[in-house]
Amino acid sequence: MASSSFRHFKDTAYAHLAQVGKALSSPARLEILELLAQAPRTVEVVAGEIHQSVANTSHHLQSLKRAELVRSQRDGLHVRYSLAGDDVAALLVRLQAVAQHHIAGLEKLTREFFDEPQDLESLDAATLRARMDAGEVVLIDVRPRVEFEEGHLAGALSIPLSELEAHLDELPRDREIVAYCRGPFCTFSAEAARRLRELGYDARRADISVHSLGESGARA
């Protein structure tokens, strides 16, 4: 095989890889992927979540679709988008982890924003499961209920942040409450833990997600 064929193959292969990289080069598109990793959404719903116009959001979604990271399906008058596969969610988790490890500015930003070292519970899947089985920890999922129904960590209670105070009677005061949401940059869990501590609970947030632990949750 001629060397020119090898060169053409490599150039073409890396061009396809660069298409994925280009699609990931927008902060808005990364946030969109995190949202779609929780549950499928219409363009209009995504636009509201990321505080952008429907036109801009549609443009971002089309860029992700061209890179084959998302797929779309007509839903009546709307178009519903979802991730192209679980491997896309895994890619996002790894990208977040690499950025947190190597980019000092990101580590500093998250540390200063959350600002309470005692608020963070560092857990891997095995430790979390062992502590839950031992009755030491109650795990709460504070994402919107539609996201919980799409998939959640096994054993978690669905208590959306917007409904927290209405479900206090479900939470024991003699055990640690660990709240999780969409991942390391999701603020729902930090807010839930803060509110619960103010009410006298032993509460922490965990910067984990359904995808980061690699643990299969119940599927609706």
From TrEMBL:
Residues 133-209 form the Rhodanese domain. InterPro entries: ArsR-like_HTH, HTH_ArsR_DNA-bd_dom, Metal_resp_trans_reg, Rhodanese-like_dom, Rhodanese-like_dom_sf, WH-like_DNA-bd_sf, WH_DNA-bd_sf. CDD domains: HTH_ARSR (cd00090), RHOD (cd00158). The keyword Transcription applies. Coiled coil: none annotated. SMART domains: HTH_ARSR (SM00418), RHOD (SM00450). The keyword Disulfide bond does not apply. Keywords: DNA-binding, Transcription, Transcription regulation. Residues 9-103 form the HTH arsR-type domain. GO terms for molecular function: DNA binding; DNA-binding transcription factor activity. This is Metalloregulator ArsR/SmtB family transcription factor. It comes from Lujinxingia vulgaris.
